[in-house]
Design goal:
Layout lengths: L1 H21 L38 H13 L3 E11 L5 E12 L5 E4 L1 H4 L4 E5 L5 E3 L1 E6 L4 E5 L21 E6 L7 E14 L5 E8 L11 E3 L5 E8 L11 E5 H14 L5 E2 L2 E6 L1 H7 L6 E7 L4 H4 L7 E5 L2 E5 L3 E5 L2 E2 L3 H9 L6 E8 L2 E8 L1 E2 L6
Antiparallel strand pairs: 1-2, 1-4, 2-3, 3-7, 4-5, 6-7, 8-9, 8-11, 9-10, 10-13, 11-12, 12-13, 14-23, 15-16, 16-19, 17-18, 19-20, 19-21, 21-22
Length: about 400
């Protein structure tokens, strides 16, 4: 009897062991899953059954346009490496490198970029999209507008197409191609967020700057901002980032129309020949107007006309009575300019913007007050000096 019990117990234990060790499926279990004791069931290898597309899906219209723009423009976008010498802690000369972007303007090898990309550089190297590198020389630069024109000697170049930036509108699609953080050939996209005047890092104003939410980061400077046809409408130049030094969705580009006249001068003269009226001026606002007893609340007061300049030739007059604005000496009593070619003038920035639309030798019509008399004068623009408008 005892022996039978031993045999029975052995059979039960053996059966239990067999079931828990060798069963591959059971109620509520799938092959290859854990059994009811938590052990992984031993299953034979099963073929992996994948579902794959039979063909590459067709791109939608927007994707096709993105791809077309990139393929069209990326051969014209270059990476610019500038090397400048600086002093280390022990006053030893050490090279420092900076990076930016630029784009090819013609098959002769002219490249447009920002002035701050190549500022103080002793050596400039341009890398094309095919990774070939070329030494570049500076043809000319305009620090005020933050533009520089370079030249390289390279074959088979693919230039960009320049658009007209005059009629840009908020909401228009834009694309930026450049080398953010050294990542060459990067394209981002967005819209025109606003068109507004801003101050650049050099302290001068960019009139009608193109604000965009397309991602622009360090390294994008000097690269092209494009419309939906892949034409250049601006030169990416700076970002508003609250000190984060990376994109916050607020980037700015110099409108390409501002660069066109600069390019003509740089390629022809190696410098910018900016038109001027030949005056030293003071912007007027309502408080100053009331203090001086002027005939208009806004305008630009002529403090001094330059000898032999355009304003003197047109018969305009500067002030003769010295006064002080804070601790700054000024001259009052001169003519007050309120309009040029029927465009209202309320600041020296307004005059600068109007001058950007003209060339040396152009004739403009000034509207101004002399005392209480409103007069007009025809004035032929001369060449600008450093401290004149």
């Amino acid at each position: 009897m005892t022996f039978r019990r031993i045999i029975l117990v052995a059979l039960i234990v053996g059966g239990f062991w067999y079931l828990t060790s060798h069963t591959t499926t059971g109620v509520g279990h799938l092959p290859g899953t854990r059994n009811w004791l938590g052990k992984v069931a031993n299953t034979p290898d099963a073929a992996l059954d994948l579902t794959e597309a039979h063909a590459q899906p067709a791109y939608d219209a927007e994707e096709l346009n993105n791809i077309a723009i990139y393929k069209k423009v990326v051969p014209a976008v270059v990476n610019i490496t500038s090397t400048a010498m600086s002093y280390d802690f022990f006053y030893g000369m050490v090279p420092q490198q900076g990076q930016g972007s630029g784009f090819i303007l013609d098959k002769s090898g002219h490249v447009l970029t920002n002035y701050h990309v190549i500022q103080d550089a002793s050596r400039i190297e341009v890398t094309l999209s095919d990774k070939h590198k070329y030494k570049a020389r500076v043809v000319g630069a305009d620090k005020t507008r933050d533009l520089a024109l370079l030249e390289i000697n390279a074959p088979n170049l693919s230039p960009v197409i320049l658009a007209d930036s005059k009629d840009l509108v908020v909401g228009q699609k834009v694309y930026a191609i450049g080398n953010p953080f050294g990542l060459s050939g990067t394209m981002t996209r967005g819209i025109i967020s606003a068109i507004r005047p801003i101050a650049n890092p050099q302290g001068t104003r960019i009139e009608d700057a193109i604000q965009t939410d397309a991602a622009i980061n360090p390294g994008n400077s000097g690269g092209p901002l494009l419309n939906s046809r892949g034409e250049v409408i601006g030169i990416n130049t700076l970002i508003a980032s609250n000190g984060a030094d990376q994109s916050s969705g607020i980037g700015f580009a110099i409108p390409i129309n501002s660069a066109k006249s600069v390019l003509a001068d740089l390629s022809k003269y190696g410098r910018v020949r900016r038109p001027t009226m030949g005056i030293v001026s003071l912007p007027i606002e309502p408080y100053l107007s009331s203090q001086m007893g002027l005939a208009a609340q806004y305008g630009v007061l002529i403090q001094r006309v330059l000898p032999g300049g355009a304003a003197e030739r047109a018969g305009l007059r500067g002030g003769k009575q010295q006064a002080y604005l804070g601790n700054t000496p000024i001259y009052v009593g001169g003519d007050l300019i309120v309009a040029i070619d029927n465009e209202e003038v309320t600041s020296t920035q307004d005059i600068a913007s109007i001058m950007d639309k003209h060339q040396i030798g152009d004739t403009v019509t000034l509207t101004y007050y002399r005392g209480r008399s409103k007069l007009t004068a025809r004035l032929t623009l001369g060449e600008s000096g450093d401290a004149t408008t």
